[in-house]
Amino acid sequence: MPYLEVRAIRKTYPGGVLANDDIHFNVEAGEIHGLVGENGAGKSTLMKILYGMEQPDSGEIWLGGQRAHIAHPQAAIQLGIGMVHQHFQLVPTLTVAENIALGRETRRGLFADRGVMRERVRALSDQFGLHVNPDALASDLSVGLQQRVEILKMLYRNARLLILDEPSAVLTPQEVVSLFEVLRRLVAEGCTAIFITHKLDEIMTLCDRATVLRRGQVVGTVETARVTPAEIARLMVGHELEPPLARKASAAESRDRLIVRDLQTGDARLQNTTVNFSVKSGEILGIAGVEGNGQTGLVEALIGLRPDAKGDILLDGTNLHGLSTRDRRKRGLALIPEDRNREGLSRPMRIWENLASGEYDRSPLNTGGVLRLERMRTAARALMERFDIRAPNEGVAVSTLSGGNAQKVVIARELATPPAVLIASQPTRGLDIGATGFVHEQLLNLREQGCGVLLISADLDELLALSDRIAVLFEGRILRIFPREEATREQIGLAMAGKVESEQAR
Amino acid sequence: MKTSFVASFSRTLVTVLLALLVGGLIMQLSGKDAMGAYQVLWNSAVGSPRALANTLLAATPLIFTGLATLIAFKAGIFNVGVEGSLYVGAFAAAWVGFTFVDMPGILLIPLAFFAGGLVGGLWGLIPGYLKARLRVDEIVTTIMLNYVAILFTNYLVTGPFFVPGMANAMSAEVAPQAQLPRLMERSQLNISFLLALVVLALVAFLLRRTALGYEIQTLGTNATFARWMGMPVARTILLVMFLSGLIGGLAGAGQALGVHYRFVGGFSQGLGFDGIVITLLGRNTPGGVLLASLFLGALRSGASTMEMFTQIPRDLIDIVTALLIFFVAVEVTVPKVWKYWRGGSKTQMAASGSER
Q1: Which of A106, A300, B234, B255 has its C-alpha lying 20 to 30 A from A506's C-alpha?
Q2: Domain residues for B309?
Q3: What is the model's pTM?
Q4: Do B222 and A335 touch (CB under 8 A)?
């Protein structure tokens, strides 16, 4: 008898989106069960239902042979179901033990009994091989350790079934390896885990079985020992994956399009660090690094949103220092921002309004301060055609678009006129395979046309596939720049963790 | 985002009917004849050409202050300071009117409106500058500056511009040629109503068809995005606050030149604040502002007559207005609260932004 059995779960969101359509799957006790699928396949909805954050329209959940009614997360915890979210929810000023016990304090009279709590955390940490110091402050922990604290939090609440929502997305390759060790140990100690991801190699390495979702339906549960990654990928997308991207040689002449010299971003946390690099024409310079190592400051300083930034930014020889964001954009700097919904689009506004936001202030869209609405709409229709933006028409609000189509709106606007340099910050985050392929294609096109591309990404595979050189950003500075031929996952991973051989940054 | 006009109009209609219904219940409970009262109200608001003219007269300042609030709301700026702009604008217009008494009306009236608008706009620039350059929250500064404006203008007419022999806080009367021409006999309805319609058209055009309007819309829907696109955010804030104050100043000028023929201390009784109600009721659109102003204007002009013919005090209209605000607020809030409770937990709200 399976430990967890999901029967015929169906969930429709207001607005008619059928997120889960007749979902069946089961998880054996002591198993690490993968749950894979593209974005929008229904993984997160399913997990929210299991954790009591959403209620299914119909269907049943059976746990340990009994029908389970999970009305809210507290009920899930009582049933032994624990969720490790992608975004950690730790209080930075509290210790590990305090964070873990928060809301479940052992009391002695009016006061929390810190000694008992600490001992229990230490015992759990030893039992499962987590190696977490209960007295450390949460703010001092690395991302990998914070994640372990989140796992401990659930174990402290006696969770026997752990749901991990894309846990590897925020980790360095080395941290992923040790996360896997932790998970194997947990299972050996009698836990069961559901591991959500869209990375196939992780499924192959870690999971015993995996359930594949596509468009809200289960398209199959596979035993990883009996299938190839390509077969899983085919299940996920419904067709064979496209062959790896063809990188043509770029324009022979290679001049520096962007030179960044002694750039200080004005980040209070990263003082006294400077950034130096250059991007040539026809080159994609990848920036690797664990999030929070100065990527945000770098992008903001380049585009002109950091008035305190110091240093030179030369775009085709012109120093951008002191210029406004608008002037920088006018000189040929384009940007795909990290958070498209906050920084790249105005979601309540229409597609054509969003597409015009780079050029509404000048001819031909603007004559003497009056907008030429018909021209804006016509230009938008042309861009929608050229960049394959799928929407009923140019007049619908961007908020109605899928993530992929919304990102295409950003890209269409930024690339409508070929830029001198494009800064692409996490350009494929949250996109499905199809849209990701489209973005990669666009970046390579730009490269062939002789633009300089600065690609900042948390996805090593993406960087390795696209970049001509890969720079590793660590604690606000470029630790090392690897030429494409010398770049390996291992070396970049080490550099991302701040470990680099004696060789200096070039 | 665009909900259909019919849908939002009918929702507004329900809101209005609910407010009238509850207002009627209150009348019945206090032993008055609600149906009779509403009938008198209707007749005295739109029952005759003169009643209609008085409705338009009452609507005039509301159109101005509604638009002043609207233009700021559109940019995501909560300007509660229209009342202050209205006072300083009214005084400036009256001052021109009783100072340049030798000027012909054709010049004097435009000059007085110009002064009222300019001073109102400059008044709006104070919190605008504080917000744009120093990121000071505009709600606090605009509320506080209202008191400054009200008390300062009151000081002006009791101090430097005191008219000997006048018992109340009011300035000298403006020159006869500065008094706005009326549109109809036996009603004070005057050309400031026409000016309000012109401003309405200009604001609609500005918001929909100009680069500034586009910047306002972008700033109001996503300020972060506006900054990342390199839009001149600070300049837009300054311009919006100037325009908002300017329109508020015109409202004051219209009242001073067309109704009171002088500046009267404390004359407004919250016309500037009414702009907020008007904008909310008008669903943040220029056309909605016009309809909401006419509706509230009808209630107010009808109220005084109703008070004469029935036993119902005009305060009832304040109750209905308050109910309107209440129901508009409920309509905006309830769906969110409803969703929250049905979700059963906070986590759903927190997680609802992520992937499905």
Answers
A1: A300
A2: 2-329
A3: 0.77
A4: no
